[in-house]
Design brief:
The chain is an all-beta fold. Helices cover 0% and strands 55% of the residues.
Length: 117
Amino acid sequence: QVQLVESGGGSVQAGGSLRLSCAASGIIFKINAMGWYRQAPGKQRELVARLTNGGSTNYKDSVKGRFTISRDNAKNTVILQMNSLKPEDTAVYYCNANDPRLHVDYWGQGTQVTVSS
């Protein structure tokens, strides 16, 4: 059974930082591309940051220079370090794992991030 469990969300003032963590189980973690998506009220879910099994990254333009995605294959964990947070970063953040062999996406339950001005 695949499980992605996020932690680290919360409320912070603008300019602050949060660190999101996603612990994966039930998948061959090292072969999966791992990513963070977010969904704000009334909006579609969007990609925030993605890290392939080969180490390539891509970020949403508005978070470049502020957010950093990293992974620890030994701990089956992916981290999203978020600095200089803005109110427009407020959303539910979801961890994603994409298995390139099976073309399957797995999702966590989401964690709320609220940034106040």
